[in-house]
Amino acid sequence: MALVVQKFGGTSVATAERIMAAARRAIRARKAGNQVIVVVSARGDTTDELISLAREITDQPPAREMDMLLSTGEQISIALMAMAIQSAGEPAISFTGAQIGIVTDSFHTKARIKNISTERIRQALNKGDIVIVAGFQGIDDEYNITTLGRGGSDTTAVALAAVMKHDPSGNGDAGCEIYTDVDGVYTTDPRLVPEARKMDFISYDEMLELASVGAGVMHSRSIEFAKKFNVPLQVRSSFSDTEGTWIVPEAEWMSDVVVCGAAIVRDEARISLDRVPDQPGISHKVFSAIADQNIVVDMICQNVGSEGKASIGFTVLKNELPATLAVLTPLAVELGAAVQHEEEVSKVSIVGTGMRTHTGVAERMFAALSAAEINMKMITTGDIKISVLVNKADGAKALRAVHQAFQLEKPRAGAGLPGPRTQQAAFQVRPMNHLEESGRDLAAITQRLSSMEDIVVSDVLLSTDQGRITIFDLPDRVGNCLHVFQAVAAGGIVVDMIVQNLSAAGMAQLSFSVPLTDLERARKVTEQAVRQIDSSTRVVAEADIAKLFVLGVGMRTHTGVARRMFGALAARGINISMINTSEVRVSAVVEKSKGEEALTALKEAFNVV
Ligand code: ASP
Ligand code: MG
To answer: 100: CA distance to ligand 1 center in Å?
Structure first.
């Protein structure tokens, strides 16, 4: 007997009629011979209304009481859902997060799950009940009610499927269906780009990157769970019976798709710390202070230093700007650095498995933006993602430009392939889940996780076959970056990591890595290219760099990753001169002579043997 977790979002339980429809769906799955767990969100706009209600009382509601309040929304839904199922003649029982034993840490309003006990759920399921669980909530060690952050019911659903799948008393067959008001995952937000199309399949990594860069279909952390615990997921409409989008392990055919989707985060803020001493340990200090406040740092541009000073640029969500500045301001005074920030910025990203194997993707993105007269304030790349920061006013235009440049509106082979594909077809492929890839026993890993939402790092790698080109003081104008990359591409040189940041004087600093064997040529073509822009722009080529990659899941949303990484290197006096972060990979550049030592330090820090 298979186990199905069905999650119904707020709109899917907004009215009595919809609750009845959801109840019928659960009953159908039960009658088809499955054990069924239903996870529900608060009805309609209940959560928003509760937040407004609290604000009518006080500007700063205490987080603990906020959780007490917010958790009531889901409690209403579970009771109504249980009544609906029972009235249709099927046995059902509802539970709050606390009753079912969803234990979290104590970070109110953004708590993380530590563990879930399966006993009570099993008992009820074995009795034949449909089990209904309140999404989004848990309880900490002190019996305080906690919530998992907005949209957190997805995470509850996938986490339940994960524990049930790996529970020794089950048979390992568990999946999760997310019922929502859209019929699947789209190539981008159809409200901003009407040509956007539904994807049939997307890999966990692609979905993780897309969710983390603003595709609001699902809570990022739920995908993280799905990947970590190999839970097959489907996002589909609660209003129809059409197949939705399957989120599955990576398959070989997916690499034919260079870019599968594009997304935007509209409300970011850019912070730069200029004139920071270029010494080991400084970044650690900065990012650990921010991580201590549980603030997620997004794009990080750690620039190459010159004259003993470096600059660190990064973005945070705009609503976390005040808290971030409160931490940084005293720190900057201590370091003799200057803090600046900018609020009206948006981040546009493209994502696709095919980026691992195809070249020229960045250049194509930059060309599209340049043709649309959009200036790029920051650039960072991951292995399946490229993000650029633009003026907020240009955000939607930038998204449309890249969607068009990669022809995402067209039916494509691979992830976007239209037409009937069965679940079977999706799973015939060899799963390339990194946990299995590295030959480790998933169940053992599951058990080792003291906390379910811990970072899972699967590997740390060192590469010393790349060199770096850095351009200092490139005038910050539309098309300048593109000009450089076109010149490099024309020379047949493959660019890997790209980091661009702005310095205080409105100058851009651009670094990128190229194969060592092409370094000298890359320097020449870059020099020629920048000379056409501004004769005072400097180009430096370095052969003595080492790149380190930390591979895993949930690398970016866990505030602790960058901290642990910087900490481990700082403890050995190793300076990081460039860094890129994404959900599935963090890359850092250090001095070549320190490469091996850095590798050892990171393996130790992340417990990789
Ligand atoms: N009701 C919560 C919210 O709106 C959780 C959820 O919907 O997933 O954020
Ligand atoms: Mg909701």
So the answer is: 19
